[in-house]
């Protein structure tokens, strides 16, 4: 396959950056999108040029590290992660535009690498269950209905890649925050701190400068883990309930 | 900041305000439409003029109308604030986007659609609401009682083709605004449930089509009568 790539190149956070065109003449349709970038980088290194910097880790679609905005869609045309996107999803002779996630809260570090620690700070604000020391509780001590367990697990599949933010016209982090709030609010262990959790996580989300939710549904449509919009409704519900009934004045 | 203003100034709180004012305006549309439909009665505007007097003099309606003005203003101002903040959330845009792959056109253009409705609203208020309150307006006598003849004003305005065209275009704008806005308001308020989602979606779409279409039909019918 012959592929023309237009890749965002940016030296550092201060650099203005711009799209640069590269030509790849021998791309296998079985390559993953990231392997295609490996081939490009080998070419660049051989020529003595700076390779394209991009985030990746597990390359199994489970870590949430890869983050490319491909031809106008986060993670490209298939509802999966960039590492699980294969070149067979493209045609011979295609031109592919590759850009980093764009959000005020995700500043570009270099080329296609963006800083997503704003997500970490949201988790630090309340996306956890405080554990007291002591004996390990018995596994089946707290009965949880199968349906609730499944729902919580569906929310917990969020890998925090940030595709929702990248897809949203407002760069809103609602789908991510709602998945994290939901997974804990649904389970008995998480219910203890559910009010303070949602209040603190939303406050942090706003402080990071993410946009508001217009309910376009773009986030869920592009989410590689198919996190549903039901989570966003639950987040709204949790927030309204917490704000109107918590003792945090 | 009190806990209330704190909650309402968050992105979620601002959206709750948009949803509540939006739903209130939806109710207003029904009331307004039921009044407008009296324009089509074959009584030279008597029912409509009596109704118009009632709507501008009844104390309960007057109080509600102030809540209505406030809802309009808040819905518009909050929309502007949210739009500015949302633009700030993505200072550098994408070179290539493919929005149709993941969302509907109306959901992405609520601000644009709202602006159409807003421009229409200003013209509309000037033509009818202002004239009804402060004139110039002719009078008409029913059973020895003097009434403002708003019906005559409406007939005069609706006899102009360009106003009818503007009206219809604005109602199409309103149609798309409601197409997304109605069900979106429920989602924002957290009212999402497998049992009721299909009903909310269905009523929202039906409302978005039927109500603006009925509004638009009135000036068209009156215009055709004046020909």
Automatic annotation (TrEMBL), chain A:
Q: Which residues form the 4Fe-4S ferredoxin-type domain?
A: 149-179
Query: Which residue windows are coiled coil?
Result: none
Q: SUPFAM superfamilies, from UniProt?
A: 2Fe-2S ferredoxin-like, alpha-helical ferredoxin
Biological processes, Gene Ontology terms: respiratory electron transport chain; tricarboxylic acid cycle
By sequence similarity, the record places it as follows: Belongs to the succinate dehydrogenase/fumarate reductase iron-sulfur protein family.
- Report the PANTHER family cross-referenced here: SUCCINATE DEHYDROGENASE, SUCCINATE DEHYDROGENASE IRON-SULFUR PROTEIN
Which lineage is the organism of this entry classified under, starting from the top rank?
Bacteria, Pseudomonadati, Bacteroidota, Cytophagia, Cytophagales
Instruction: Name what cofactor the protein needs.
Output: [3Fe-4S] cluster; [2Fe-2S] cluster; [4Fe-4S] cluster
Please state what the protein is called.
Succinate dehydrogenase iron-sulfur protein
Domain of life of the native organism: Bacteria
**Keyword Coiled coil belongs to the record:** no
Which controlled-vocabulary keywords does the entry list?
2Fe-2S, 4Fe-4S, Iron, Iron-sulfur, Metal-binding, Oxidoreductase
Q: Which GO terms describe its molecular function?
A: 2 iron, 2 sulfur cluster binding; 4 iron, 4 sulfur cluster binding; electron transfer activity; metal ion binding; oxidoreductase activity
């Amino acid at each position: 396959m012959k592929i023309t790539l237009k890749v965002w190149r940016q030296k550092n956070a201060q650099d203005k950056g711009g799209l640069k065109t590269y030509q790849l003449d021998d791309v296998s349709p079985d390559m993953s999108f990231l392997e295609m970038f490996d081939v490009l980088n080998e070419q660049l290194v051989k020529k003595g040029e700076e390779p394209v910097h991009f985030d990746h880790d597990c390359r199994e679609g489970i870590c949430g590290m890869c983050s490319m905005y491909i031809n106008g869609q986060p993670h490209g045309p298939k509802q999966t992660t960039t590492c699980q996107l294969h070149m067979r999803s493209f045609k011979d002779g295609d031109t592919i535009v590759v850009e980093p996630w764009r959000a005020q809260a995700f500043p570009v570090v270099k080329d296609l690498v963006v800083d997503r620690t704003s997500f970490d700070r949201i988790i630090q604000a309340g996306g956890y269950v405080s554990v007291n020391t002591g004996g390990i509780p018995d596994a089946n001590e707290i009965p949880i209905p199968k349906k609730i367990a499944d729902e919580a697990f569906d929310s917990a599949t969020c890998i925090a890649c940030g595709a929702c933010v990248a897809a949203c016209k407002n760069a809103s982090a609602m789908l991510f925050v709602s998945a994290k709030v939901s997974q804990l609010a649904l389970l008995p262990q998480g219910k203890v701190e559910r009010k303070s959790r949602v209040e603190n996580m939303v406050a942090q989300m706003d402080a990071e400068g993410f946009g508001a939710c217009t309910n376009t549904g773009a986030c869920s449509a592009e989410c590689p883990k198919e996190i549903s919009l039901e989570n966003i409704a639950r987040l709204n519900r949790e927030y309204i309930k917490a704000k109107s009934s918590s003792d945090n004045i | 900041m009190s806990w209330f203003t704190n909650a309402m100034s968050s992105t979620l709180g601002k959206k709750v305000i948009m949803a509540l004012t939006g739903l209130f305006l939806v109710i207003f549309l029904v009331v307004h439409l039921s009044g407008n439909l009296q324009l089509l009665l074959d009584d030279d505007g008597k029912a409509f003029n009596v109704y118009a007097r009632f709507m501008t003099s009844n104390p309960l309606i007057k109080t509600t109308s102030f809540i209505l003005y406030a809802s309009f203003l808040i819905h518009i101002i909050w929309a502007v604030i949210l739009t500015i903040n949302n633009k700030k959330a993505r200072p550098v845009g994408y070179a290539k986007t493919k929005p149709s792959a993941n969302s509907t056109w109306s959901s992405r253009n609520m601000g644009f659609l709202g602006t159409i409705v807003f421009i229409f609203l200003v013209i509309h208020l000037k033509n009818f609401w202002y004239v009804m309150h402060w004139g110039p307006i002719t009078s008409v006598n029913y059973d020895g009682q003097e009434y403002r003849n708003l019906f005559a004003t409406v007939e005069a305005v609706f006899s102009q083709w360009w106003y009818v065209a503007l009206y219809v275009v604005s109602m199409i704008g309103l149609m798309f605004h409601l197409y997304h806005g109605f069900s979106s308001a429920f989602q924002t308020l957290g009212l999402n449930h497998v049992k009721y989602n299909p009903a909310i979606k269905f009523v929202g779409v039906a409302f978005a089509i039927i109500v603006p279409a009925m509004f638009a039909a009135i000036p068209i019918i009156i215009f055709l009568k004046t020909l």
